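Most newcomers find our protein records easier to grasp once they have seen one. Read left to right, the backbone structure tokens trace the chain's path through space. Once this layout is familiar, the rest of the handout is easier to follow. The record below serves as our worked example for the rest of this section:


***
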Amino acid sequence: MANRLAHTTSPYLLQHADNPVDWWPWSPEAFEEARRRDVPVLLSVGYASCHWCHVMAHESFEDETLAARLNEHFVPVKVDREERPDVDAVYMEAVQAATGQGGWPMTVFLTADGEPFYFGTYFPPEARHGMPSFRQVLDGVSAAWTDRREEVAEVAGHIVADLAGRSLAHGGQGVPDESDLARALAGLTRDHDDARGGFGGAPKFPPSMVIEFLLRHHARTGSEEALRMAVSSCAAMARGGIYDQLGGGFARYAVDAEWTVPHFEKMLYDNALLCRVYAHLWRSTGSDLARRVALETADFLVRELRTAEGGFASALDADSEDAEGRHVEGAFYVWTPAQLREVLGEEDGAFAAARFGVTEAGTFEEGSSVLRLDAGEGTDSGSGDTGDGAAGEDAERIASVRARLLAARELRPRPGRDDKVVAAWNGLAVAALAETGAYFDRPDLVERATEAADLLVRVHLGENGRLARTSMEGRAGENSGVLEDYADVAEGFLALASVTGEGVWLEFAGLLLDVVLTRFAGEGGQLYDTADDAEKLIRRPQDPTDNATPSGWTAAAGALLSYAAHTGSEAHRTAAEGALGVVKALGPRAPRFVGWGLAAAEALLDGPREVAVAGPVGGELHRTALLGRAPGAVVAAGEPGGGEFPLLVDRALVGGEPTAYVCRHFVCETPTTDARELGRRLGG
């Protein structure tokens, strides 16, 4: 059969290229084939580091007999959700509406017009726990298609009509005000797990966007409750098994409420967002724990995910080979007491077991444990502890133990890496590395951020100013960027402009945000996830709520607001305010799902402040400005009088000294040459 997936740029599709299933990539030709043969389309959606996607592939898609049945009665279409988030979003909405739940792999049966009529996620090879086998599903759908076609068409029609009626009307409802943000904070307080950190119960996901809101709210209002929840959540995650205690970086989520056992895949977006959050926590509190985690996570990004072209790969798999050669989840990361003793010797092995919670019974599978710090030690006060409860000789011993265990772990079979470069997630990484490098005097991290930004311009940004969603080995993919790509890349460029003093990044951000205004905006402040000239699906996706990353809608609002603060553009500020209408509508009722929008609203209520530093990039005033806690403040630094930043126009030196101007809407306070005074004005 034709191997249609072999020449794609998606690692996920390439994983399925040798299946006996006659896969098609998402394309008009696939649906035309279904129409020609008069059979349904089987849509299977997943991603390269998805554990249960691997399981279903091994159990079902590698089975010759089942594949033959699938090929005979269906046109099978394989989609990488990370390359086509629009396709994933539209059909996941249908799955969740029909079943009340969702996940990956996502399995949907469609008509040749793309209309869904039967849904599911993972299906086992044999029926169990009330779930039909995949073979039973195929037989049932095929029979319904053959014998009850009118019923299938009726179901599909109802679903499409329901989806079409879900267009949002939350834009332009006014901007969030003090009472809206206070109600959002109250809602988060109710949901906060005071005993274990985070929000809600198991499974627990890193609440990156919510923590950014809490830190900004504390900076603007002085709310100790907001800071308490941010510190509690960050400390619990950093001490738990969700954080890699040896190599740095965070897993996707914890399966339990205590952050002990993670789902072991490591995603670029989580680590970029959390790196930035911990850097901002350090900026607010001076916490050594936050400093350590921010730097270790940044180093993880560079060491483990950086590609040869200077970008950042999407993910590391959860699975790898264990000592018996089995491909299992978490094998690379977990330890037994015997393994610790083998690497460290009896005395240090016992010390490490106690320190990292490794027991004979185990906290994971088959007597193995996930490393975590003893919750009874080293509570982080933000006032100078080492971040792991250790000092002096004890700290040196822990450092030695970590180094030896990390070296030993490097000899294990490594998890696979999804080398696909996603524009949006690289934008998040650019922002995180630029700011972390600036805060902690790590120019190498700023260089890595700049190199990733260069790749986004060189490979992803076409001559027409449009972004490609992905690239692989320096070659742009065929799929167009979606709203989150434009918003998050602009966010990264704006952060890089503030750190480096290079105005070209402000120009590139403006280019991207102009596309947002012309191609992604609807009436009344609404935004859509796909451009107005993108491929037409059964509905145009539009979701203002955060998922694993900030929603494209609220990420765009934040970037538009920052760009307006840099340039004085009323068009961009007006668009940002219109987009934040959705936060006014949803924030007080569902704050956990619009954290990034709430953070943008904090910036709006604070101004945001515009800081112009007429003086050397990297000088004391510039560094002080970057460390200011004023929510969403933008910084321009460089030669006085103008140059590459509108904020520097007519900003002169005072007494021949480097001078800082703190402004709102380009109306400025008295200039200052005193770094301490500048810090005071910016809440430093």
